[in-house]
Automatic annotation (TrEMBL):
<keyword id="KW-0732">Signal</keyword>
<feature type="region of interest" description="Disordered">
    <location>
        <begin position="260"/>
        <end position="298"/>
    </location>
</feature>
<dbReference type="InterPro" id="IPR051940">
    <property type="entry name" value="Chitin_bind-dev_reg"/>
</dbReference>
<feature type="signal peptide">
    <location>
        <begin position="1"/>
        <end position="20"/>
    </location>
</feature>
<feature type="domain" description="Chitin-binding type-2">
    <location>
        <begin position="52"/>
        <end position="109"/>
    </location>
</feature>
<dbReference type="GO" id="GO:0008061">
    <property type="term" value="F:chitin binding"/>
</dbReference>
<dbReference type="InterPro" id="IPR002557">
    <property type="entry name" value="Chitin-bd_dom"/>
</dbReference>
<feature type="domain" description="Chitin-binding type-2">
    <location>
        <begin position="119"/>
        <end position="179"/>
    </location>
</feature>
<keyword id="KW-0147">Chitin-binding</keyword>
<feature type="domain" description="Chitin-binding type-2">
    <location>
        <begin position="184"/>
        <end position="248"/>
    </location>
</feature>
<feature type="compositionally biased region" description="Basic residues">
    <location>
        <begin position="278"/>
        <end position="288"/>
    </location>
</feature>
<protein>
    <submittedName>
        <fullName>Sechitinase</fullName>
    </submittedName>
</protein>
<dbReference type="GO" id="GO:0005576">
    <property type="term" value="C:extracellular region"/>
</dbReference>
<keyword id="KW-0677">Repeat</keyword>
<keyword id="KW-1015">Disulfide bond</keyword>
<keyword id="KW-0325">Glycoprotein</keyword>
<dbReference type="Pfam" id="PF01607">
    <property type="entry name" value="CBM_14"/>
</dbReference>
């Protein structure tokens, strides 16, 4: 973007002047102290000329080198600003003063950043950060103003540093967090033709789950609905009572009545207030979406 670098380069010059005459710029000192050899009015004229050249409009402009630094041009003055630590300036529109988490912004042309202000579990004050233990593939921290929240990816997913979301281990490509490390499951060797059908196999440890072997060799764990089990003969999810080796899988977790209700949902009718206790509890989150840790993960 031509204007960005233009602004960045010339703004340094403007700042020198603005610091002497304009309203105090916040934060950093300009690189060079203002030179006091030019007469005040001459300098004012020069400043105005330069600013009308360099600030064609009021608004917010990215620094040419530092992704979290930007300038506000307002009524002919330029104010240097910094995003909160961990966020970067989004320069999609000069009318918007917007700092964002860096995931969808390209900072490659202006890679510098302010000095980090770390806090517990937060390498910077704001952002998503991997767990310190590289073996904790599915855990990460969400930091806001230096306060952390630990978040756990849904079962079988790995926190992906680059995108800030939970993804399949083979997509996250995180060292020590590959499909082989995350899943205690090896895809059985198959020929190439069969591999292309992405064969499915029951999870030997958990009746509700199964593995899809992408191209026959990369396992991804997937689950059946609550009350169902993976039928390894027919390669599909089926009500647990119909899968011989899993018929008792939900014993202790769900009552027969609850299982029956899952299989044949009662037709909704007006419910008398304060009737049967809620059946919601055993629901497990299966969406490919981050869920808060602690609470209902078993
Ligand atoms: C590949 O494997 C499948 C299943 O084991 C088998 O039915 C098929 O004939 C094999 N194809 C080739 C080309 O070997």
């Amino acid at each position: 973007m031509a204007f960005r670098s233009c602004v960045g380069v010339v703004l340094l010059g403007c700042l020198v002047l603005a610091s002497a005459a304009g309203p105090k710029p916040k934060g950093r000192k300009p690189v060079n102290p203002p030179v006091r050899t030019i007469a005040e009015n001459e300098r004012k004229a020069e400043q105005e000329a330069e600013i009308t050249n360099d600030c064609p409009e009021d608004g917010f402009f990215a620094d040419a080198e530092q992704c979290d630094k930007y300038y506000e041009c307002r009524g002919g003055t330029i104010i240097e600003k910094l995003c909160p630590d961990g966020m970067v300036f989004n320069d999609y529109s000069p009318q918007e003063e917007k700092c964002d988490l860096p995931f969808n912004l390209d900072c490659s042309a202006r890679p510098k950043l302010q000095t980090p202000i770390p806090a517990l579990h937060c390498p910077r004050q704001n952002g998503y950060f991997s767990h310190e233990d590289p073996k904790e593939c599915g855990k990460f921290y969400y930091c806001v103003d230096g306060k952390f929240n630990m978040i756990t990816c849904p079962d079988g997913l790995v926190y992906n540093d680059k995108t800030g979301i939970c993804t399949w281990p083979d997509e996250a490509k995180k060292k020590g967090c590959g499909a082989a490390e995350v899943f205690a499951f090896d895809c059985p060797p198959v020929n190439e033709t069969f591999g292309l059908t992405h064969p499915r196999y029951a999870d030997p440890e958990d009746c509700q789950f199964f593995y899809v072997c992408i191209n026959g060799n990369t396992p991804r764990r997937s689950g059946c609905k609550l009350g169902q089990a993976f039928d390894d003969v027919n390669k599909k999810c089926e009500w647990a009572r119909k899968v011989p080796e899993c018929a008792d899988w939900y014993k202790g977790q769900l009552t027969d009545a609850e299982l029956e209700a899952l299989e044949n949902p009662p037709t909704p009718k007006p419910k008398p207030a304060g009737s049967a206790p809620s059946r919601r509890k055993p629901m497990r989150p299966h969406k490919a979406k981050a869920v808060e840790v602690d609470a209902d993960e078993e």
